[in-house]
Design a protein that fits this description.
Blueprint lengths: L1 E5 L18 H13 L4 E6 L2 H4 L9 H8 L2 H11 L3 E7 L9 H21 L4 E4 L5 H7 L6 H26 L2 E5 L11 H6 L5 E6 H6 L4 H7 L4 E6 L1 E2 L24 E2 L8 H10 L5 E4 L7 H14 L1 H4 L2
Parallel strand pairs: 1-2, 1-10, 2-3, 3-4, 4-5, 5-6, 6-7, 7-10
Antiparallel strand pairs: 8-9
Length: 321
């Protein structure tokens, strides 16, 4: 398995104080050597073109930012290598921020930036691009026309999403990038719902197997890996102790549920997920692809790095297969 960590551990939207420092190149230049010092030589990058609109080029989460600061993606890879990071394993793009009641416009924007992210992944020699094709259920319901049934609207949305993903498959194959679909717990593709969507698409579209999202949605994570071994394209080991007893998955921002004084995601190894049977299942199916540790939205970046290293050390036999 090819081990990496996700830069989604750096939350640019919710955490204070000193959030603005995270928008500077200096912050990231200080972080890269610490990632390598923690024993991680690969990273996953969230693709967030929204930062371009504010003129911020210090955040390495879009092609524009990378080219502004490093000239080319190759220049960025050289910069990472100097800090001890050998490669970028994957890219994650979530277009939810562009959602509006004009779905044609939304899918046009989605397609544009998905293609941009795909080219970016290829230029960085990343193994995969994973897409969050469904916005949160609460956001979708908010843009559903009043004269349309919500369920019909959701079905129509997934049909459009499936068409878009299908159109991307040839380009992804040509560029040598594996196209994966995220199974977010607050989306139309929560839990087992992702399976029929994936299986309706070409064989060259894969499942992003994300442990916390699956557990929150009530799925037996280890059994899910066995059942759908033929379509797992990348693995995210994420952690949680969250039990969605109040149906937070229906909210507009389920990662930060209203009325719940809790964090949905935990640093890897500090939640309630039992990773032993999950790793055993991945070994049993012969999975040897990308495994990304993601302490998503951590409250302490540096502590999260050490916790992920501790987790990797504890599970080195399974993770190094």
């Amino acid at each position: 398995m090819n081990l990496a960590i996700s830069l989604e551990m750096v939350d640019l939207d919710h955490h204070e104080p000193n959030r603005n420092s995270r928008e500077t190149k200096h912050f990231w230049d200080q972080l890269y050597p610490l990632i390598a010092a923690a024993g991680f030589g690969a990273i996953e990058i969230p693709y967030e073109p929204k930062w371009d609109f504010g003129g911020r080029s210090g955040i390495p989460r879009s092609r524009r930012s990378i080219e502004t600061k490093f000239g080319t993606p190759s220049g960025y890879l050289e910069h990472l290598a100097q800090a001890g990071i050998t490669h970028v394993t994957g890219i994650h793009f979530d277009p939810s921020m562009f959602l509006s009641d004009n779905l044609d416009q939304f899918f046009g924007i989605f397609r544009h930036f998905a293609q941009e992210a795909l080219g970016f992944a290829a230029d960085l020699q990343a193994a995969y691009l994973t897409l969050s094709v469904s916005p949160p259920l609460g956001k979708l319901q908010a843009v559903c026309p009043q004269d349309q049934n919500v369920q019909d609207f959701q079905v129509a949305y997934l049909q459009k999403a499936a068409q878009l993903v299908s159109e991307l498959t040839q380009e992804a194959s040509t560029k040598g990038v594996r196209l994966c679909i995220k199974n977010a717990f607050g989306s139309l593709l929560r839990g087992e719902a992702v399976v029929p969507f994936i299986r309706s698409l070409p064989q060259s579209v894969w499942l992003d197997f994300d442990t916390a999202h699956l557990q929150i949605a009530g799925v037996d994570v280890a059994a899910f890996a066995i059942a759908h071994a033929d379509r797992i394209g990348c693995v995210h080991l994420t952690d949680t102790a969250f039990v969605d007893s109040e149906q937070a998955y229906l909210q507009k921002n389920p990662d930060y549920p209203q009325g719940a004084a809790t964090r949905v995601f935990r640093d890897v190894g500090t939640g309630t997920i039992d990773f032993a049977p999950i790793l055993k299942s991945l070994t049993a199916i012969g999975y040897t692809g990308s495994v990304t540790l993601n302490s998503k939205n951590t409250a302490d970046i540096h502590r999260a790095l050490l916790r992920m290293r501790h987790f990797a050390n504890q599970n080195s036999r399974d993770l190094n297969r």
